[in-house]
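Margin note from the TA: students keep mixing up input and output lines. Inputs are the sequences; the output is the structure of the whole complex. Example:
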Amino acid sequence: MTSNTATMNGAIAGPSLWSRMMSGQAGPVTVVLMALFVIWYGGAVLMNAPTQIDKYNRADQTWTKMQLIEDTLAQERPILPAPHQVAQEMYKTIFATKITSKRSLVYHTWVTLSSTLLGFVFGTALGILLAIGIVHVVTLEKSLMPWVISSQTIPILAIAPMVVVVLGAIGLKGLVPKAIISTYLCFFPVTISMVKGLRSPQVIQLDLMRTYNASKWQTFWSLRLPSAMPYLFASLKVAIAISLVGAIVGELPTGAQAGLGARLLAGSYYGQTIQIWSALLTAAFVAAIMVVLVGWCERRVLVRMGARS
Amino acid sequence: MKQVTGTHSVKLDKFCLVAATAALLSLIFPLTGIDAETGKQIAFVGDIPGLAIAMALCVIVGAAFTWLGVGKIQYAAIILAVAVFGCWQAVTALYDHGLAGHATSGFWLFILSLWAFVWRGIDVVARYRSLETAKQQSANILVPIAFGIWLLFVWEVIVAGFGVPQVLLPAPSAIGVRFINSTDTLAADFYQTFIKAVISGYVIGCGSAFIVAIAVDRVPFLKRGLLPLGNMVSALPIIGVAPIMVMWFGFDWQSKAAVIVIMTFFPMLVNTVTGLNAAGKLEKDLMATYASGYWSTLLRLRLPAAMPFIFNALKINSTLALIGAIVAEFFGTPIVGMGFRISTEVGRMNVDMVWAEIALAALAGTAFYGAVAFAERKATSWHPSFRVRRH
C-alpha cells in the first residue's frame, strides 16, 4: 500500500519521479518482474530450440534465427511454454469457456477452492480451540504442545493421497477428505500463534481484570481474545495458503477428475505443459487473492477490536 | 482446579473418584458382546484373572487416593504404575482372550478409569517443580512421552476393541510389526528419497539462497524488489511445479531435488536478507570505529546476528524438503522411494505398509528437524530464547 502512495506522490512531484519510484517498493518489484519475464522468454527459446531444430531437420527445412525464435514460442507441447501461450490458455479456459464445462478452469478452481475454504474453517476452529485449552490448562500445555509441534515434522502432505483413498474406500468422497487434509495443515500455525496471542496481555492488564473481579470467561472475552487478534490474522494468512496446497495435493490421487490438482496430474500424464502452467498460475492467483482478502478482514477486525491505526 | 495436599484435606480428588467408580462399574457391566453361535458371552471378568486383578487394583488405589489426594510426586508414580499395569492387562485381554472386536461397556469403563488415572498422574508430573535441573528436565520430558504412549495405547485399544477394519486404520502394533519385517524395502526407499533427493536438494537450495541473499544484500534496489516477491512466493503452492520438474529432469532423484531447491530457496532468501539487517545500529557503529571493512563486519557481526533467522529458515525448510520429495514422487519415479511406495501400496490396499512408510517419514522428518535444532542451539547459544526458564 505504501508503495502505491509513493508512486502517486512521485507523479505529483514531477521532476524526481524516477528516483522516487525506484526508492519505494513498486519500482524495484516491477523491474524484477520484468526481468523475470525476459528470463522466461529467453528460457523458453533456449529450452524449446533443440526439439524445434530437430523438427526442421526431419522436414528438411531451412530456417533462419528469427523463424526459430518465433516457432519455439508457438509450439504445441513446449518444454517451457512462453508467457503469452499460458496467458492465452488461461483466457480460453477461464473466460471463453462456460463455467459448467469440465474444460473450464473456473469450474476446477471452484472444486479446489470449496474444499480449501471448508478445511480452512475447520482448521481455524480446531486451532483456536486447542489454543484456548493449552492456555487455560497447564497439563494440556505440557503434554499436548510438544506433540502439536512434532505433528508438523511429519510430512502429512505426503500421506494426503492415502487419506483420500482410504476415506473413499469407506464411502467418504468428494469435498470432505480433501478438507480434512487442509484442516490438518491449517490448525498448526493457528494454534501456535493463538497460544502466543492469548498469552500476550501484560501482567498489569491481567491484574486490572482481577481488580474488576472479572471471571476467567470475562477476562478471556474482553482482554485475551482482542489482544490475540493480530497474532491470529498473521497465522490465518499462512493457514489459507497451506490450506490451498493441501487441497491441491489431495486431488492428485482421485484419478484426475476435477480440481486444480487433477489438472496438474492430467497435464503431466499427457505432456500438456501449457495446461500445467495455466493451472499452476491460476492456483498462484487464487492463493494471492485469498491472502489479500484475509488481510482486508484483518484491518476491519483490528479496527473493531480497538487497534490504534 | 485446586491442588489437594495432605491427608487432612476434606476435598476429594475428582479424577481418582472417577477412576475408582469406573473401575468398580467395569467389574459389574458385561465385558464383551454375545457370541452369535453359542448365545453366550464370549468372556467374563472371572475368566481373565489378570484383568480382574487390574480392575480391583484400580478400585482400591482409586478409592485410596480419592481420600488421600495426589499431592506428592510419589503418589503420582504409584497411580501411573497402576495405570501401566492396567493398560498391559487390557491389551492382553484384547488379544489373548478374544475381546478384540467384541469389547463392550465393561471394557470401555475400565479404559475410562485408566484415562482418569493417567490424566491425574500426568497432571501432577506437569505441575512438578524442582530446583534441581536434572529432576525438572526429566519431569518435563516424561510428560509428553507419557501422553504420547497413552495416545498410542488408546489408538491400539480402539482399533482392536471396535474391530476397525485394517484398511481404514491399522493398529500401531500391526504397523510396528510391518515396519520391522520390511526394513530392507524401507531402507532402500529411505536411501532413494532422503539421502539422495532430500539432502542434495536441501543443501543446494539453502546454499544457493544464502549466497544470493548476501549478493542481494549489497544492492538495496534488488533487496526492495526481491523481498516482497519472496514473501509472496511463500504463499504460493510451489509444490505444483513437481510435474514440470519431473518432465525436465527425468524420473530419478534429480527432479525431486529440483523441486526441493525451488521450495527451499525463497524461505531461505527472505530470512537471510531479513537477518542480515538484524544487527543493531550501535553494533554497526562499533564495527565502524574499529575500521572494520565489509567482509569483516559481515563475518563478525552481521552473519552471527542473522543466525537465528537463518536457522528459522533451515528448520522450516527441513520439513518442506521431505514433503517436496515425497509429493514429487507421485508424478513419476523409478520403482523405489517413499512417495512411490506410498502411492503403490495404497493402490494395493496394503495400508499397514503405507503407515510403516509414514512412520519412517515421521522419524526421518523429526530427526532432521532435531538435528537442525541441535545445530541451532550450538551455534546461537547466546540467543535469549535459549535461556533456562526459572519458575
